[in-house]
Amino acid sequence: xxxxxxxxxxxxxxxxxxxxxxxxxxxxxxxxxxxxxxxxxxxxxxxxxxxxxxxxxxxxxxxxxxxxxxxxxxxxxxxx
Length: 80
What we know:
With 80 residues, the protein is mainly alpha-helical. It is built from 5 helices and no strands.
């Protein structure tokens, strides 16, 4: 069985918690509404190009890192 992980879970567990960054702080740093960050963490919002760019600038990653996480989640979640 393959584990499907939403990019928001990666964001929360691998970046925000270790760096002790709150959702409102991250949202402010990215210049987006706080509900977008909380929705991403909750898995109810997907990573698009704008969010991927903001996350990459904030955490020193690439936009492709975040978009690839989203693509893997989408493919893994697809029902054939």
